[in-house]
Amino acid sequence: MTARPADTDATPLESACPDCRVGIGEAHVEGCDVARCLATGRQRLGHAASCRCPQDTWTGRWPGEDACLEFGWMFGPGLPDLTRLLTTATWDPVAHRWTRPGNGIGTAEGEAS
Which of 9, 25, 43, 86 has the greatest number of beta carbons closer than 10 A? Predict the structure, then answer.
């Protein structure tokens, strides 16, 4: 299987969250500014106390980087276009992931959606 070109843009996995220092696959600690609200996809820190979203876990990459890689929304190696992700994509609160505009399958950079 051949790697997608965007895969070469991925940053190496970080073994620990840069804020709360949990390892890959571990839940972020309360107050971590890297953790995401799994109901909205936005930063968990300071989100509504009434939100009952599950706890986010550290994946080894900054939140949203994997979606930017998948969508081809990279400025270059290790530089995901997170602004485009947050302003263009839609958060799926059931799947706990970003989807591209349109039918959710979306298009790569430069293709019509």
Answer: 9
